[in-house]
């Protein structure tokens, strides 16, 4: 898959939000979710759910501004997420690692060397189970659901948990329709 040069031009033309403002605002949202949740698991679910709802909306913006007609294959979808959408919405690109397909499940890992949501953040010991960037996982899942992919996302590594980089694994399978059976 190639990210078209026009996509890079589009990304450069989009009005950007100051990354520190994004980081601090996201931190405030996470902090409030933690306060409102009874457990870290519940906080993770809320972050994922918020991301899912965001993903269902931002995919239209990405597809229209990136001027993508159609992804040729699943690898094209993965590359657009890692290199196109991440750059457009977070200002970073993720290295995409395609894993062997099993049982019609397409799996890829997104390797983030930097994650702007993690700036200024340290997880206290009692919150080590928190997937701080779970909103990203939810956004990917929500965006994929809009284009009829069933996806699960999970963090394999997290820089906030003393890993060298953040790795987000995405598993996706094409949604079946009644007419397909």
Automatic annotation (TrEMBL):
It holds the Pfam family TRAPP. One of its GO terms (cellular component) is TRAPP complex. It comes from the Eukaryota. Transmembrane segments: none annotated. GO terms for biological process: Golgi vesicle transport. Keywords: ER-Golgi transport, Golgi apparatus, Transport. CDD domains: TRAPPC3_bet3. It is found in: Golgi apparatus, cis-Golgi network. Belongs to the TRAPP small subunits family. BET3 subfamily. May play a role in vesicular transport from endoplasmic reticulum to Golgi. Homodimer. This is Trafficking protein particle complex subunit.
């Amino acid at each position: 898959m190639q990210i078209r040069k026009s996509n890079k031009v589009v990304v450069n033309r989009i009005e950007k939000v100051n990354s520190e403002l994004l980081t601090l605002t996201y931190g405030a949202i996470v902090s409030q979710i933690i306060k409102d949740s009874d457990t870290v698991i519940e906080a993770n679910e809320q972050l994922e759910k918020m991301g899912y709802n965001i993903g269902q909306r931002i995919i239209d913006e990405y597809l229209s501004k990136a001027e993508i007609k159609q992804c040729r294959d699943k690898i094209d979808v993965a590359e657009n997420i890692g290199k196109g959408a991440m750059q457009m919405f977070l200002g970073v690109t993720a290295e995409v690692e395609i894993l062997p397909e099993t049982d019609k499940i397409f799996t890829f890992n997104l390797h983030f060397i930097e994650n702007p949501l993690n700036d200024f953040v340290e997880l206290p010991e009692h919150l080590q189970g928190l997937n701080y960037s779970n909103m990203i996982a939810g956004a990917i899942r929500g965006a994929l659901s809009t284009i009829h992919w069933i996806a699960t996302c999970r963090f394999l590594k997290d820089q906030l948990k003393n890993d060298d980089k953040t790795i987000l694994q995405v598993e996706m399978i094409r949604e079946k329709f009644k007419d397909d059976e």
